[in-house]
Design brief:
The chain has one domain. It has 4 helices and 11 strands; from the N terminus they run E-E-E-E-E-E-H-E-E-E-H-H-E-E-H. A 5-stranded mixed sheet has the order 1-2-3-7-9. The protein is globular. The two termini are 21 Å apart.
């Protein structure tokens, strides 16, 4: 897993880089994860690219969906890997313990306790394809080659926009086996152990 990764996706353009909160590379796919620490019920806006978040004063705030944030990053990473072999998917994880996601929103927008089950379902869906485990080392190498890996180029993993980072303790394993052991324990411990 890469935290606070800066991709160099369009050198020489007005916006040459893109930040990824967390890039999780597994034997069944790559997951570009945007983490939001929003409290309250996250609901749908008229536009699919926008979400509504209730404010403390009762106002309704429109915010860009993590799916919109991830779209260009997912396309870029998909282009780095062999066609039709790798699944690259964008996820939005709402890390606040008081955050809820409206069930009509895309399934890839998750409350913090839904992550393990979602990844497990992705693993099972991938197993049905009959494709062997994906080459994590190759994907990690391609992602690293397209990133600015200098320490000064990366955001501090413990913070994001001045707040503690929700995933700073989630998955510390590249190429996890979700059927048992370390990842299940890491996700379970992180879900119950977040202190933000």
């Amino acid at each position: 897993m890469f935290d606070s990764l800066i991709l160099i996706r369009a050198p020489g353009s007005a916006f040459p880089t893109a930040g990824i909160d967390h890039l999780v590379i597994t034997p069944f796919g790559m997951f570009v994860t945007e983490t939001k620490h929003w409290a309250g019920a996250v609901t749908r806006e008229e536009s699919a690219d926008m979400l509504i978040l209730p404010a403390i004063d009762g106002q309704r705030l429109a915010r860009t969906s993590p799916m919109k944030h991830n779209a260009a990053k997912v396309r870029f990473l998909t282009g780095l890997l062999p066609p039709r072999l790798w699944i690259v998917e964008g996820l939005g994880v709402f890390s606040h313990e008081a955050g809820t996601v409206d069930p009509t929103l895309p399934a890839a927008l998750l409350e913090r306790d839904e992550l393990y089950r979602y990844l497990r379902m992705c693993q099972q869906r991938f197993a049905l394809t009959g494709t062997g485990a994906l080459a994590c080392a190759h994907a990690r190498q391609r992602a690293s080659a397209a990133a600015d890996m200098r320490p000064q180029a990366r955001r501090t993993p413990a913070t994001h926009s001045g707040r503690p980072h929700a995933w700073s303790r989630v998955i510390r394993i590249v190429c996890p086996d979700l059927s048992s052991g370390p990842l299940r324990s890491a996700v379970a411990a992180s879900s119950s152990g977040w202190r933000l």
